[in-house]
Amino acid sequence: MKLIVAIVQDKDSQHLEANLVKANFRATKLPSTGGFLKAGNCTFLIGVEEEKVDDALAVIKKTSHTRSQYVTPTFLMPEAASSMADPVEVQVGGATCFILPVDKFVRF
Ligand code: 2BA
């Protein structure tokens, strides 16, 4: 068994949740915050049999969209005067996924 930890944008989370259920995957959705943008995102914990990992990743890929976001650099350097800083564009994924081995899985 594997544990997929998938970080997705808030905007995609409801759609992903629905598509995972539809494809018969069990998942837990946790509210999370990106360290860089300090904006809300969602972290999904999805326990899957090894042979189903690619199917689950396909659902995540289909549902998660890359978007551009503008960040004001003063956000990173609050001491800088805001008038000096032009917003810069960052591409926020899609989905950031980690696939971890699971030693043991029990449900009571
Ligand atoms: P954030 O940390 O808020 O990052 C949002 C986006 O900002 C990132 O999109 C990336 O395009 C940019 N970014 C992040 N750190 C940067 C830096 N040090 N310099 C320049 N640009 C930077 P994604 O890479 O698609 O990441 C989306 C979210 O996924 C992240 O939100 C974070 O919550 C999570 N994430 C990404 N990589 C991670 C990792 N290695 N470990 C844990 N969480 C990660």
From TrEMBL:
What is the organism of origin for this protein?
Answer: Companilactobacillus farciminis
What protein am I looking at?
Answer: Protein from nitrogen regulatory protein P-II (GLNB) family
A Pfam short name: CdAMP_rec
Judging by the UniProt lineage, the source's domain of life is Bacteria
